[in-house]
Design a protein that fits this description.
The structure holds two protein chains of two kinds.
Chain A (H helix, E strand, L loop, with lengths): L4 E3 L2 E4 L5 E6 L6 E7 L5 E8 L2 E5 L7 E4 L6 E5 L8 E8 L3 E2 L5 E2 L4 E2 L3 E5 L1
Chain B lengths: L3 E4 L2 E5 L4 E7 L5 E7 L6 E6 L5 E4 L2 E5 L5 E6 L8 E8 L7 E2 L3 E6 L1
Parallel strand pairs in B: 2-11
Antiparallel strand pairs in B: 1-3, 3-8, 4-5, 4-9, 6-7, 7-8, 9-10, 9-11
Classes of the chains: A mainly beta, B mainly beta.
Chain lengths: 122, 111
């Protein structure tokens, strides 16, 4: 079964260092996302990416964050200068497309999540 | 931003019991989704609801999209040990937009 893969599974870094988290979305998917989950808290949206550009971003996704799709398969999240509060599990997700169902409802298309990359900032 | 209130925060139940959890929102969503997250893994979709009033089942799981579009519930019948995990509701305003997640319900099933 196709899956979203993320690397590294765990990264420990010093405050102020740059971090790049990598994701390989499912190959025929068109929409890509990054979410994060601080330990014990809910999953929070960071950014969505479609057609080679950011389509939506949250307040969390400030100038320290950037995303790239450098080739046809990878989708990366870069944090330029990490802060202690960036420590979290970062989830990449992808989905195929938005479809209109027979009754006219719009199907979001299932969002597939990766297993996450745990970032620890010291 | 949109906020989802999910309750209860945690539940301890005996194997075989039924479980119910719900989410409410101060604003309308056009899609409600329920996810399960197990330790060390990402959320996995359980049920998706696209229409107000819709009641959908997936095995022992049943979820409903509230008529007001501001709430949803998830029921699990005859719980088993592998139901253990964190259950999240998520709402979506439109199909291309982000998901807003609830705070999660930690379910523990006692043998």
């Amino acid at each position: 079964e196709p899956e979203v893969t993320q690397t590294p599974s765990h990264q420990v870094t010093q405050m102020g260092q740059e971090v790049i988290l990598r994701c390989v979305p499912i190959s025929n998917h068109l929409y890509f996302y990054w979410y994060r989950q601080i330990l014990g808290q809910k999953v929070e949206f960071l950014v969505s990416f479609y057609n080679n550009e950011i389509s939506e971003k949250s307040e969390i996704f400030d100038d320290q964050f950037s995303v790239e799709r450098p080739d046809g398969s990878n989708f990366t999240l870069k944090i330029r200068s990490t802060k202690l509060e960036d420590s979290a599990m970062y989830f990449c997700a992808s989905k195929m497309e938005n479809r209109v169902l027979a009754g006219g409802e719009r199907d979001t298309g299932e969002l597939f999540f990766g297993e996450g990359s745990r970032l620890t900032v010291l | 931003g949109q906020q989802l209130n999910q309750s209860p925060q945690s539940m301890f139940i005996q194997e075989g019991e039924d479980v119910s959890m719900n989410c409410t929102s101060s604003s309308i969503f056009n899609t409600w989704l329920w996810y399960k997250q197990e330790p060390g893994e990402g959320p996995v979709l359980l049920i998706a609801l696209y229409k107000a009033g819709e009641l959908t089942s997936n095995g022992r799981l049943t979820a409903q999209f509230g008529i007001t579009r501001k709430d949803s519930f998830l029921n699990i019948s005859a719980s088993i040990p592998s139901d253990v995990g964190i259950y999240f509701c998520a709402g979506q305003w439109s199909s291309a937009r982000q998901l807003t997640f609830g705070s999660g319900t930690q379910l523990t099933v006692l043998p």
